[in-house]
UniProtKB/TrEMBL annotation:
Active site: P2, E3, K58, R261
Cofactor binding annotation: Binds 1 zinc ion per subunit.
NCBIfam families: fpg, PRK01103.1
Organism name: Sphingomonas colocasiae
MF GO annotations: class I DNA-(apurinic or apyrimidinic site) endonuclease activity; oxidized purine nucleobase lesion DNA N-glycosylase activity
Name of protein: Formamidopyrimidine-DNA glycosylase
Superkingdom classification of source: Bacteria
Catalysed reactions, semicolon-separated: 2'-deoxyribonucleotide-(2'-deoxyribose 5'-phosphate)-2'-deoxyribonucleotide-DNA = a 3'-end 2'-deoxyribonucleotide-(2,3-dehydro-2,3-deoxyribose 5'-phosphate)-DNA + a 5'-end 5'-phospho-2'-deoxyribonucleoside-DNA + H(+); Hydrolysis of DNA containing ring-opened 7-methylguanine residues, releasing 2,6-diamino-4-hydroxy-5-(N-methyl)formamidopyrimidine
Length: 271
DNA sequence: CAGATCCCCTGGTCGC
DNA sequence: TGCGACCAGGGGATCT
């Protein structure tokens, strides 16, 4: 599923198509995804020019010269198709540009979202208002985690998935980062020694940077905007590798399910 | 507030 | 081959 690296890869791909482009057609093909699509989206975006693209946490952003920002979330199964020949049942938004390019936001499971927000009011956009720091920013450091973890009894895995603590991590990269850092996912946040937070922060930054470098992971239904599959999944140490050898010690990777979600870890390397 | 649980949604996979 | 059961899981809502 798209996490931060996949969204970053998607935005970079979209940028090559949309930066500076005039939008000649912006067509929602259903009224809602996870929540309602703004009914005036078509009217507000048609004829506008794209002035920039960006990313915040797992959200992609497309700015227009009308002072609006289209904010998209890819949910579980969302991806942008670039220059598709046909528009299918799961293509929920179609965009065409004056220079003849076409994009389709495809999301079979419809866990994604589309919002149109005044660019100047983005900070107050409800889904953004409570987000923690970007994990690749310098402000995300051991001191930040120390404060966020203090007195918390929730498992470190749950805390790292909490977008208020750090914004953009999902199940895959949390599992990977905890393995790299050698921390058991069930450890209560408040019981992690301060000296272990620097390696944890480094692990998070490293695994995200590697994934972006590789063009984003793929999990069955993820594809880069240009249709090529990302390939960071080949580098997964523990995620999806139950029963296979831990790359560090050779013991079988274990899996447990907590609140319906799989956690992959090595019981020897992570304590 | 912190934490736990449930729900949304559909394609792919698995067992019979 | 067909079919039902089950699973993936981010984020928001709703409880205790």
């Amino acid at each position: 599923m798209p996490e931060l690296p996949e969204v970053e890869t998607t935005v970079r791909g979209l940028r090559s198509v949309l930066e500076g482009a005039e939008l000649t057609r912006v067509e929602p093909r259903r009224p809602d995804l996870r929540r309602a699509i703004p009914p005036d989206l078509r009217q507000r975006m048609t004829g506008a020019r794209v002035t920039g693209l960006g990313r915040r946490a797992k959200y992609g952003m497309i700015d227009t010269d009308r002072g609006d920002t289209l904010v998209f979330h890819l949910g579980m199964s969302g991806r942008w198709r670039v220059d598709p020949e046909d528009i299918g049942t799961h293509d929920h938004l179609v965009i065409e540009t004056a220079d003849g390019r076409r994009l389709a936001l495809n999301d079979p499971r419809r866990f994604g979202s589309l919002d149109l927000v005044e660019t100047s009011a983005l900070a107050g956009f409800a889904p953004f208002a409570t987000l923690g720091p970007e994990p690749l920013d310098d402000v995300f450091d051991a001191a930040h985690l120390a404060e966020a973890f203090a007195d918390r009894i929730a498992p470190v895995k749950a805390l790292l998935l909490d977008q208020r603590v750090v914004a953009g991590l999902g199940n895959i990269y949390v599992c990977e980062a905890l393995h790299i850092a050698g921390i058991a996912p069930t450890t209560a946040g408040g019981r992690i020694a301060r000296k272990r937070l620097d390696p944890l922060v480094a692990a998070i930054k490293a695994v995200l940077a590697s994934a972006i470098e590789a063009g984003g992971s793929t999990l069955r239904d993820y594809a880069r905007p240009d249709g090529e599959l990302g390939y960071f999944f080949k580098q997964w140490r523990v995620y999806g590798r139950e029963g296979l050898d831990c790359p560090s010690c050779g013991k079988p990777v274990e899996r447990c399910v907590d609140s319906g979600r799989s956690t992959f870890f090595c019981a020897k390397c992570q304590r």
